[in-house]
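Bumping with the actual sequence this time:
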Amino acid sequence: MKILLTGATGYIGKRILPALIEAGHEVICCVRDARRFNPPASIKSKISIIEIDLLSPKSLEKIPADIDGAYYLVHSMSASSDYETLEKQSAINFCKALDKTNVQHVIYLSGIVNESELSPHLSSRKNVEEILAKGRYHFTALRAGIIIGSGSASFEIIRDLVEKLPFMITPKWLMTKCQPIGVTDVILFLTKTIFNPKTFDQNFDIGGPDILTYKEMLLEFADVRNLKRSIVIVPVMTPKLSSYWLYFVTSTSYRLASALVDSMKIEVVCRNHDLNNILGIEALTYRESLKKAFLKIDSNSIISSWKDAYVSSGNTMAISDFINVPTHGCFIDRRKKAIINREATINKIWSIGGVNGWYYGNWLWKSRGFMDKIVGGVGLRRGRTNVNALNVGDALDFWRILYADKEEGRLLLYAEMKLPGEAWLEFKIEDNKLTQTATFRPLGLAGRLYWYAVLPFHGFIFEGMLNALTKVEQSVK
């Protein structure tokens, strides 16, 4: 069957794509920017790609008329303060576009919305569900709560809290109950539901067998990691303070932290497990899902991470808008050094960032990340998804990868830190030389003052990084 997959570059989209191919489906992947779509080489011949923008009805005309099914895996939470309007309009446009096709079944991954009072985030999910249900096709909504898996936002936030804080003073919403579900089970529910008549024109809650408070989830996570943790709950922490608490301790953005705090005050518990019985699925426990996530992390086989989504920085950039590095009106710091072993140098470049750091003056990089966090930026806490691979569109600490070609020997990064201007960092190997170029396009007087303020550090950081790269490379000659 031919299936349309929206959100193909997202956390769930990247994981369901191989599963759909394995099931024998032909998949049309919808992306906003084809440059940042990097499917596994083994499935490239079995998919097609179209660039669409759900807010642009004209672009939706690219959707083939002969599709049989579709997944709606798009959310705008934290991409904008007005995400509810964006999500509503996107759903309306998508519904109208699909009504012009032969699609038989549409599946939407939503959130559990069983309380009478909902957060703006959950309310928006419910509104989208109601809009999509009006189309001329069979519709099924799968409602999930906390998704646990390597790279998921919930998992990474819990991990940050537990692994960084031996003692936690926390807000009272930690006593809110929820029903977490492993990401592998989410994929199983999604793939088994498509084209199943027993699921048509209904909505189902999906979750694991455990109903836990957020406090219990944190403590069980600590137990799995053999960590002793103490949690004290206080009633005086306001939602705003709670959001700042999450923002400064974890790798989440403030906007996402704020949306999550609003939702965490609402219980997200499944009404029943009807879909488990229909599809014959026995979901993993919370503990089993945690252990499975760490197996993926330990084997360095994380398929997707929420940090690679643009919402991790609040950016809505298109890579094509930034891949051509400007020169006019820019400040440029370019340094070159001869290399001996090209392959060793490239491997070192491709390992940059994350736990490896930036090879020289890491305390300065960390200080810059801390200052960025203070003013509402992403800081350095996003790290990198894979310790060996760099893919276009992925986050790399406070950078975004614009171009990464290992064979060519070129890596181009765009800064997502808070700056009075725009910045690029490029590594390029040509004629047995490594060229390292930092480009800054200032915004007004503030941008120029910023450049001159940090200029004294450039000779220390950039020259040191270049020397460290080549020194390591030469030592393995």
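The tokens above came from a reply further down the thread. The mean pLDDT is 86.
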